[in-house]
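Lecture 7 notes: from sequence to structure.
We start with the chain below.
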Amino acid sequence: MPVYKYKPEFVSKVIECKTERLTDSIEARYCLSIKLNNTLDSSYVFIMLNPSIAGRDVSDLTINKLCKFSHSLNEVGTIHIANLYPFYETNSMLLSSLIKNLQNENKNLFDEVMATNRQVLSSLVKDSKKVVLAWGDCPDLFDRQFHIKQCHDFKLFLKEASQNQVYVIKTHFERLLTVKNSPRHPSRPMLKGLVPYKESS
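Predicted structure tokens for the same chain:
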């Protein structure tokens, strides 16, 4: 697997990378906070599906793309990357088995990790100008009902937090959301801007 670095033309530094080693094979990343290479002081939160490999010293394709896109907006100084599920897994199709295994082996640990994930997101949302939903469709092999509930809970949480500045990414596709009405993940499409999120977008 190639090693990706943060690109200095878009990124000034990684401010924080909050991770936790859960088991020998599972690690969580609760947030990745990146100062862009500009003098702006506003911040946005992007909520994606789960971390791939990016950390304090190593980036990945999606994070590099998101940094370049955010820098091009010329309206935000820091981006915080959070996730529906904080577990590192590059292949989203393997995420389901990772979660099931952890739930079966240590349900309390799984619940604690998800609670910490929510607490970190709550803190980020309070101080951010915009929250961008960007988790994409439910992965293959994933428990669809579990995923739908998680997405619903996050949207409800944003309403309870009185965060009204909720956006999705506008891409080159005509439809703002996916065919399954999910906010688009930034990994594949051409990113064009941010548009206020509405359930029926």
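Points to note: The CA atoms of residues 138 and 147 lie 7 Å apart. The first strand starts at residue 11 and ends at 21.
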